[in-house]
Structures are given as structure tokens and as C-alpha cells.
Amino acid sequence: MKLKPLFIFILAALVSGCGLFGGSKETSRTTGWAYNEDETGNIPNVSGYEQEAGPGLVFVQGGTFTMGRVEQDVMYRNDNFPRRVTVPSFYMDETEVSNQDYREFTHWTSRVYPNDSEKLKSVTPDSSVWRSELAYNEPYVENYFRHPAYAEYPVVGVTWEQAEAYCKWRTDRVNEQVLVDKEMLTHDPSQSGQNVYTTKTYLAGMYDGTAGEEQIENSDGTTRRVKWEDGVLMPEYRLPTEAEWEYAAYGLIGNTDGELLTDRKIYPWNGAYLRDDKKKDKGQMNANFVRGRGDMMGMAGALNDNADIAAPVFSYSPNDYGLYCMAGNVNEWVSDVYRPLSLQDVEEFSPYRGNVITEYRHDANGQMMRDEYGRLVKDTIPGMDYRNFEDGDVNSQVIEGNNWNEVQDRGTEGMYIQDDRPGSFSSLIDDEVRVYKGGSWEDRPYWLVPGTRRYLEQTKAQRDLGFRCAMTRVGSPQGL
């Protein structure tokens, strides 16, 4: 017997949980209760969520790859043996953060905290990194960060801590703009002191800004502010992990012919050569780097890479993910704490060393506390600082002599024990040393290989070291 079309339509509507008349109601497939309805207690549910890339970001589809050294270990550090890992999908900045991008940060800081010179100083790049005893670099000291001629050049002279601060600031500005675009907030140029929008204080109900005309409406007609469960706000901008950065640099998407998975490419572009082999740009350099002693850009009339120092962030051809300058231009900070043996310690899925688990600080009344800048204060949960887990904690120390018990008692707080007693020693690498990657305009080609790694104290800066941001992908690794 054939079903009539009207009956088929009604049956489909009932099966899908949608009312035939009066619009659709989503219901639970396990209880049958209606979602987001006053009569059933407003059970929250957001269906069909699909994450959008934040401003400046491109999607990097995750997968497996062989992470680590490609070429001979010329430094003989033995800290980067190849190993197979899997990186989940994420988002990454299309380019390095430019001077103009970072100047938004310093401008905002000076406007919101006009009388706090220390606050502004703490986020301002160190232009003195350009200064050299035996070179005339004063023009860069004066101009590189501030002059409009260098606006689209990568910001340098930033510490790892400043890069982290920029990521947090950018998260707040992007999410503030999301709420403004949806007319749930209005811009408030007068915000200052403790009354400053941050994503965390807004979600905690502690930001007293000016509400827009639109708010989320409950089924009973009342309105409320956005909650994290609504999926309106974006995850935080952050520094990429070393595994994410290296994976994105190789750009292996749709490019796994032959043995690229195990033997890998050498550089972020196709081929094993530094020059472009495409007909249009044949012979041109794929990145800026030091070609030989005293040769930073080639000869006049044929400058080749067209950059004496760094180049604008959109220079050269992007890799297969659409990422620019993943080799050359400037080195880039990543979030990982440096360890020589990370390759042996970290996990196969989403490898990373640097986890520090925190919780919000509360006052005697149970209210979350804020610092002088309006940010919520966090404390490390005891026993959950994992930066030195199984590689640097007291149980992995190499101690000479008979002082083990005494050293163990003294080692409950920090990572590496500063111990100058006879018969004892420890590493000079501590929890404040971070990895950077990518090679730069003043590096030899060896460092342009994504598998290479170097490290620097997180409070120090260099004239060839910048950064780019990443964002976690939530949900499906490739979209629904």
C-alpha cells in the first residue's frame, strides 16, 4: 500500500520532533522533553553549532605526522628525535603579528590606563634589541616599531610573556566586538580601571558595560546576557604548541604523496630547494634568510628576497594551509616549556609540555577577586603545575653523592634545585625557558626547517623573534 504524500509529511514531522503547526520545537531524543521551553524548565540546548574562524585566523585540519629532526643535528643537542604524533584541528594566524597589530594593544593600554606608565611599559616591545656595538642600527631602534613604513612588518623585541599578554588581550577585544556586532553590548571608550571588559569578567557577571538593544530572550519573555554555553563567544587566542606550529608549517594537507609522512618535506614549500621553481617566479627565494657570510639580501638590481631585515608579513608564497612566512622572516615563540627529552615524555595525541592548572581566587564572601586592572585573579592548584612533570621534577634529578634525601626534601617547590653543595648538580634549564621555531632573516637555511627548535628565557626578547596566535577548534575536526 502506498502512503499518501500528506501522511508522509505528517509522519516526517512527528519523527523529527517538529510540530506541524506553530513552528518547530526541539526535543530530547532520550526523554522527549522540549528544549528551551518555559514549561519544561528551559533545558538549554544549542543544535547545529559550527565554529567560525576568528579574525586573522585560518583553519588547519589536524592529522598525524612525524615530528622532529629532518636534517643532521648540527648542534649535537639530541633533543629532537623524530616521533609520530597526532595534532587535532585548530586555527592559526595567517601571518605573524605585525607592528600595526601590536600597536593596537599598546594604544588600547595607554588609553584605558592613562596614568599607569608601568602597565604600558610592561607591554611595549624592547626596541633596544636592534642596538649593536659594532653596527649602525639606531634607525631601527627609533623607527622599526613606531614608524608607519614598518607597520606591516612583524613585531619583534617581544618576550614570551608579552606575546601571552597580547593573546589574552586579543581574546577580550574580539569577543567584545562579537557582542557589539550582535547588538548585545555597545562600545564603551570610557572603560577604565576595574570596569574593563574581559571575557571572563563578562561571563561571571562582573562587567558593568552598556547593554545593546538585543539580548538572549528566554521562553517567558525575559532576557539575559550571553553564557558560554550559548556558543556565541570564541575560544581564547593563545600561542600555538610546538607540535601545532610544526605541523602547520609543513602544510601536508592534500600533499601526502610518496613518503612525505615518514621522510617528510624539508621546508614549508614543496621541493627540497630554497628557490622557487615555478615558471613565473623561477629562481626567486622562497623566504628571507642569510645566504652566506655578509649576504643578507643579494646585490643591487637583483635583491632576490627583497628584504634586508624582516619583510612585510604577507611576503613570499603561503604554504598549503595558506600560512605566510612559516620559514624565514622572524622566528616565532610557541607555548611549550623547553626540555631536551620532551620527545620521550609527551603524549602521542596533542603533545605539549607546559600545563599549569589554575582556579579563580575568591574572597571571604565567596566572590571572585579581581586585580587592579579588573582581571580575575587565578592561583595555581597545588600539585598541578606540570611543566616539569617526569622531566625536571625531583624524581628525575640526576644527583651525585649521598645527598638524595636532603635534595628531595628541598625540591618540593621548584623544578630544578639550585644546589651548590659538593657532590650535587642540576640543570640550568628551568620552567621559564620556552621554545621558538621557524628561522629568521639573520639565520642560515638550517633553521628554516620546521623540525628545528631553539629556546630562550621567556622574559627575554630578540630582534628576529616574533609570534603568531592560534585558537582551539571545538567540535568536529573538519566540520559537520
Describe the SSE topology.
Blueprint: H1 5-15, E1 57-60, E2 63-67, E3 83-87, E4 90-93, H2 99-112, H3 117-123, H4 138-143, H5 160-181, H6 199-203, E5 216-217, E6 223-224, E7 237-238, H7 242-250, E8 331-337, H8 342-345, E9 356-360, E10 378-385, H9 404-410, E11 433-437, E12 454-457, E13 465-466, E14 470-472
Parallel strand pairs: 8-13
Antiparallel strand pairs: 1-4, 2-3, 4-14, 5-6, 7-14, 8-11, 9-10, 11-12
Helix pairs in contact: 2-3
Q: What gap, in angstroms, lies between the N and C termini?
A: 37 Å
Q: DSSP helix count? A: 9
Q: Largest sheet at a glance? A: 4 strands, antiparallel
Spatially, the strands of the biggest sheet line up as 1-4-14-7
Mean pLDDT comes to 83
Strand content: 5-15%
List low-confidence stretches.
5-23, 399-425
Query: What integer value in Å does the Rg equal?
Result: 26 Å
String of helices and strands: HEEEEHHHHHEEEHEHEEHEEEE
- What is the structural class? alpha+beta
Count of extended strands: 14
Oligomer: single chain
Shape: globular
| Helix coverage percent | 10-25%
